[in-house]
Structure formats: C-alpha cells, structure tokens
Design brief:
The chain contains no helices and 52 strands. The two termini are about 40 Å apart. It is an all-beta fold. A 7-stranded antiparallel sheet has the order 9-15-12-13-14-11-10, with no helix packed on it.
Length: about 650
C-alpha cells in the first residue's frame, strides 16, 4: 500500500544519499533528495534562486579573472576585476570610466567609424559607448579603438552596416584600469586584507602590495615599503661577519657597500633590506653623555646615552651638558630647559643598529645599496695602513702600527704587493699593539709595499624575512591594529605582526606595542594557509587550526606574551575563510568540506563543526576554491 508522507518543511536541506535509509534521523523528515535552483528559507520553505544579470565582459574573456570586493563603506563599495596583469574597477553595475568625449556621428560601415571631436584616445584603448540615439546597438558595450586620428577612430571588428542609423547624442569613455604584476595563473592565490581605502595583497611570488583608492577613478597599486623589517633571525655564527664602507656621509640615503667574511649573498637578495647591530662600542669619537660635563661644543660631536647615539646640533648655553639625559628616539631635544646655564640640543642618530637596502649583487660576499637609517660609525670601520708583512712560523705577520685590533677579530686585507698571500679575509691571532698574525694563512713572499686592513664590524646581522631569496608571504590579515603576514618559502610556519597602529614598522622590540615575530611549533611543521581576525588571531595550517592570543583567549598579543595554541585538527586549504558573526567558516585541506570555527566560552577554546556533515555529496566531484557570505536578501554562504 502506498503511503504519502507529510513533508512539513525543507529546513534540513538536501541530504546525502548515504542518509536515505536513516528514517530515525530527526532531519530526515525535513530533508530532500535533491534541491536544484531553489534556496532553503529559515522558515522551512523553498524560494526560487536569484537570477543573474549580464553587466559586461571581462577585459579578456578568454582568460580567467577574479572578482575581489572593495568595501570602504556601505555607500562606497566597488568590485575589483583582477585579470592577467590588469585591474579594473566596477561600481554601480558598470566599469569605472574616465575621459568622456561627446559623439558627433557614427558611420554605418565595416568597421564603424566614430566622430568625436578632439578626443584623447589612442589605438588599443578600451572604451564604453552609452546614450546613442538611433544606433542603439552600440549602447553599453565595450569596444577597442583602432586607427585613431584627431577627431575620428574605428571600432575594431565592429560591422555597423546592419545597425540603425545614428541620429544624435552619445558619449564614449575610456575604461579605467591599472597595471598589475599578477599573472592569470596567480589570481586564485592572492590573499587580501582591507583597512578603509587601502587593500593589502599578499602572494608567495610577489612582494606585498598596497592598493590605495584616493578617488573614484584614482587607484594606485605599489609594493609595500617594508624598509623597517621584518627580518629573519639574527646570525648566530660569530665567524661570519660583515662590515660597511661608505663614502663621505653616514646619513640615510648614503651609498653603502656591505662586505661579508663568508658567502651570504645571492643575486636574489636584490632588492631587500639588511640589518646590522654594533658589537664594538668603544669608538673614541662617541663619548658617553654625563650631566654637567665639560664637552667640546663643536657641532656634530657624538655622545651615547641610554643605548642611543646623538649628535650635537646646537651648542646652546654654557660649556657643560645639562642635567636631563637624552632618551628620545627621533628628532631633537634639549638636555636642560630653556634659560638654564648649561644646555645643549641633541639630534637622535641611531640605537647601535642600522638598516641597509641592498640593491646590487656584486658577488657572494658583497652587495651595494643605500643606508635606510643612519649608519653607525662602528659598522663602517676605518682602514689600518699596513707597513710590512713577514713570516711568523709559516703565518703572515702583519705590521700596522696602532691598529687597535683585538685577539680573535676578523679582518679584510687588501692591496698588499709582493706578499699577496696576506690578501683576503682572516681571523687574527697573536695580536700585539703593532702586529697581528693571519690565522691559517701561508708563509708570505717578500713584502714590497702597500696594503690595508679593515676589521669586520659585527656578526649580529639579519637578512630581510621577505625577498626573492627567502620568499614572500602568502597570507595577510589585520588584527588588533597590527598588520600580520605569514608563510614564506623558507619559513612556511612563520608569523610576523607589525607594531601596533604602525603597519610599516616590523622592527624587533620588547614593548607591548612593538613587533611580533613567531615560528609556530607544532607536531607537524605544516605551512600556514590563511590568517583571519576574530576575538583572537586565527591561523589555518595544512594540519591544524590555531588561535594566537596573550595570557588567555581574547587577550591581546604582545612581543613578550604570545601563545599560539591548536584549536582544531581538521586542516585547511588556501581558500580565505568567511566571517559570519562570531564564526569563521573555512574549507578543509581536501577542499571538500566547510567547517565552522567559533569560540565557546564554556569550553574555553574554539570548537570546529562540520557544516557539510549531512551533505558531503555536494562537493564530491569538485573542490571548493572560493567562499563568500551574502547577508541579503537571503543569508547565504556561496561556495
């Protein structure tokens, strides 16, 4: 006997074929075998899905494009069309255009010829025509200009012989677009994060970019100026040292050559930044600042105070220093109030470290570039003049009166004639006030003349964390007023967060508002696939999902108090998650399931829930490559 079942609702949606026999399941009674072209309403009914509208072709419909939303506010929203090395801007269902020209006539020929007096278009320009009377076939279509002259141009490949005759009106406008470094094959792996009029873009094959909107048709895409870090870990081998040479000035922008005692450079380090820290602090040209001390009033005199170095720029009053020690780390400051008997004005120079921008690869030990910060005196040591090289028990013994070097220092010897065995990079031993031996050198030939020795300045140096040599970050997010990057080819589980409210500052520090640098330590060293901001910074890797927080869930992260703790073991792919209320919806590693990750206070952790558990068949024959949340008119996740 046939039985007709009562179907009160479709609230359970489409169910997996594996559940067809599960009549005991509560959702069985409100589920369906197949729901196509309908949307399940929260009330339980079905609503026909929304239709689509053709707004226009992409710049090159033969290639893949990607749409990325740009939401400055509810009233100012754009859609960015990323194509092969180009970006177009869409607003109000049409591409943004510039340089409008009035149309005076359009011919019924093959190709069509448009008359627009004193237009500014050139061959190859992409334009949109609107408002034409008579020849309505041209309206709201995109064309490519050919054979442009002062007042006319052709519409490439447009046969207007069968179109209606032009009668009046019409405007032709150039489609606004900007160039981009992203190839068609790279579009799907662009990661984005937006703050007001600025969109931050990360991609493992390119340096981080900033897309800035300054007007409706004024957009700029440029590499992010990461001159203040982030940096890789400091070198820990005290035998691998570097020094700088500068000509004339140590000011920011001065040309600088960096020389290493071992091969640490490749051509892929250009361009990148390089950080060095002083280790020799006994430079006689930098005296410790002390209150009430007689000093020379020569402008430019340098002193050290509280770990910083300052230069005298105004002798002020009296022959002594003031009583307020300099502590500022930018600009100028007096060491006593105005009117004091003794007071001097000091300009901040550096804090015993410097940053160099490496622009040109010379060889594996040498690169040249420019100083980003003031170049510390101790990082550009003076050359010592060599007066003799002799044999000392099979080693080269160098004579350089008053050299000031210490046992175990490393030096570069150049320009020695005759005893050429001394030229090169050496550790020095058997040091006396006038001589030193070159460790592991060979007995020299007869010394003829010349030569100089320059001490390698420091072993405390670090490469930029982002470069062609180390890779660029694949992930980006904004969290707690910090800009965070993650996952380079050499540090796939590395995380870098800027100083608070200073997105371009990744200098290492210990204050709560300074930079955070972290390598996730887990059972599996899997690369980070995404970052997103919730009550904590959530991190998806191939094997697990983590939360980064301070002392406890919800507490802010700081350089000295950051915990990154596993919350879920599902594993993620590179699809950027969608935020829905307090939940984060992410795609699992296989690209077949969608999970919800939410902080549950009663559990004291984030809990993941499989949203496709009862309908795993929906993605059985395809992987999920993108998700987007729509609030209206129906609250839906599109995948």
């Amino acid at each position: 006997m046939r039985v007709t079942a009562h179907q009160p609702s479709f609230a359970a949606g489409e169910l997996s074929p594996r559940l067809f026999g599960r009549v005991d399941l509560q959702k069985y009674a409100t589920g369906a075998e197949a729901i196509e072209n309908f949307i399940v309403r929260p009330e339980g009914g079905l609503m026909r899905r929304h239709g689509t509208r053709f707004l226009g072709e992409t710049r090159d419909s033969a290639k893949r494009s990607r749409l990325i939303p740009f939401m400055f506010s509810t009233l100012q929203a754009y859609m960015l069309e990323f194509g092969d090395r180009t970006i177009r801007i869409w607003k109000d269902n049409a591409p943004v255009t510039v340089s409008p020209s009035l149309i005076a006539n359009v011919s019924q020929t093959n190709p069509a010829i448009v008359t627009a007096v004193a237009h500014t278009f050139i061959n190859g320009t992409r334009v949109v025509i609107s408002g034409v009377s008579g020849m309505g076939e041209l309206n709201n279509r995109e064309f490519t200009i050919a054979n442009a002259s002062a007042n006319n141009f052709e519409l490439s490949s447009v046969n207007a012989t069968s179109y209606g005759a032009y009668t009046s009106n019409g405007t032709v406008s150039q489609i606004y677009e900007i160039s981009s470094p992203f190839l068609e094959s790279e579009l799907e792996t662009i990661c984005i994060s937006q703050s007001a009029d600025v969109l931050y873009l990360a991609h493992p094959m390119h340096a981080p970019r900033i897309l800035t909107r300054t007007g409706h048709a004024a957009w700029t895409l440029a590499p992010m100026a990461l001159v203040r870090g982030p940096f890789a870990a400091m070198n820990g081998d005290d035998a691998v040292r570097v020094m700088c040479t500068a000509s004339g000035t140590f000011q920011p922008g001065a040309p600088v050559t960096v020389r290493a005692s071992a091969p640490i450079f490749t051509a892929q380090h250009a361009p990148s930044t390089f950080r060095l820290q002083e280790i020799y602090l006994s430079d006689p040209s930098v005296s410790p600042w002390s209150p009430g001390e007689n000093i020379t009033t020569a402008i430019g005199t340098q002193v050290s105070s509280n770990g910083h170095v300052y230069a005298l720029i105004d002798a002020g009053a009296g022959a002594q220093t003031g009583t307020v020690s300099p502590v500022h780390t930018e600009g100028d400051a007096w060491d006593n109030p105005i009117g004091a008997v003794n007071r001097k004005k000091w300009r901040y120079l550096h804090s015993r470290w410097a940053i160099i921008r490496l622009d040109t690869f010379v060889d594996a030990k040498t690169m040249s570039g420019k100083a980003v910060t003031y170049l510390c005196n101790g990082l550009a040591p003076a050359a010592r003049t060599i007066t003799s090289v002799s044999n000392a028990s099979g080693l080269c013994r160098v004579t350089a009166s008053g050299h000031g070097l210490d046992e175990g220092d490393y030096v570069q010897v150049t320009g020695v004639a005759g005893a050429t065995q001394a030229n090169g990079d050496w550790k020095i031993v058997n040091v006396t006030p006038t001589t030193f031996d070159l460790a592991n050198s060979n007995a020299p030939s007869a010394y003829i003349s010349g030569g100089s020795a320059r001490r390698f300045a420091t072993w405390l140096w670090a490469h930029s964390a982002f470069s062609l040599a180390r890779g660029f970050p694949a992930c980006v997010a904004l969290h707690e007023q910090r800009l965070a990057f993650a996952n380079t080819s050499l540090q796939p589980y590395g995380l870098w967060a800027s100083a608070s409210a200073d997105y371009g500052n990744f200098l290492p520090g210990s204050r709560d508002d300074e930079t955070i640098s972290y390598n996730i330590a887990a059972n599996q060293a899997d690369p980070i696939r995404w970052l997103t901001s919730a009550s904590d910074l959530l991190i998806g890797t191939l094997s697990q999902e983590f939360a980064a927080f301070g002392g406890g869930l919800g507490d802010p992260i700081t350089p000295s108090n950051t915990r990154i703790v596993p919350q879920s073991g599902e594993g993620s792919n590179a699809v950027q998650p969608a935020k829905v209320g307090i939940e984060t919806l992410f795609v699992n590693r296989a690209g077949r399931k969608i999970f919800s990750l939410a902080n549950q206070a009663d559990v004291g952790a984030y809990v993941s829930t499989d949203l496709t558990e009862l309908a795993e068949h929906l993605s059985a024959n395809a992987t999920i490559t993108r998700v987007a949340w729509a609030k209206n008119p129906a609250s839906l996740l599109w995948a």
